[in-house]
Each structure stands twice: as structure tokens, then as C-alpha cells.
Predict the structure.
Amino acid sequence: MGSIVSFRDLDAWNAAMELTVTTYGLCRRFPRDEQYGLVQQMRRAAVSVPSNIAEGHANGPGLRYRHHIRIALGSLAELATQLEIAMRLNYVDRDTAKEAATQLARARQLLHGLHRSLNRQLLTRPLTFVVLLGSAFAIARLLS
């Protein structure tokens, strides 16, 4: 894997973008009277996932990045629920729903991995600071 320069380099963002395109495609099949109901909700939830990944990445490593990843995970949960509603209402056939559910699971897996990675970075950062601070005190003592 190469270095990550942009949010576009993140597998989680790319998976979320694919899921968004799939969501828009399946929403085109919904009845007209759902255009301002379930369709809008599903599209908003789908768009929220890659948008929050991008916004979090733009904030740089830290708590705000993790916050945006958690929002993206919440939007995925919303979309999963909305997809199930659409299936129960027979707006989506099983094969289409299965494809979307597979993409959703992949995006969730990648987002959880990104979240774990961010957690590890945050855990090691304070230790590095403490080690450096401890070294500074040790050097100061030697010099005094």
C-alpha cells in the first residue's frame, strides 16, 4: 500500500463512494411517491459516509478525525436500516439488496479498521510525548 496523501487514497472512502453510487442506482427504481421520503433519506445517509471520511481526513489525525469516522459508521447503520425497509416494502429485489448489503459490509469493515488505526495512533502519541518529556527532564538534571 502506498502512502496516503488524500482521502481519495483511503480504501474506506473508495468503498463508501461505490456504495453511494449503488444506492443512487437502486433508489431510481423506487415508486415516485418515495422520492421525497425514503429515497432522500437513503441518499443523504449514503453521501454522508464518504463526506465524513473526507472531512475527518482533512482535519488531520486526532479526535476530530475519529469523530467523523464514528459519524460515517452511524450513517452506514442508517443506510442498512433504510435498505432493509426498502426490501420489506418490495422496492428492492433480493439480488440488488444483497449487492448493496455486501458493499455496505465492506465499507463498515474498512471504516472500523480505519477507526482502530486512528485509536492506535492516538494511544502511541501521548507515550511519545511522555518519553520525550522524560528525556528532557533527564538531560536537564544532567546539566544542572
Q: What stands out?
A: The radius of gyration is 21 Å.
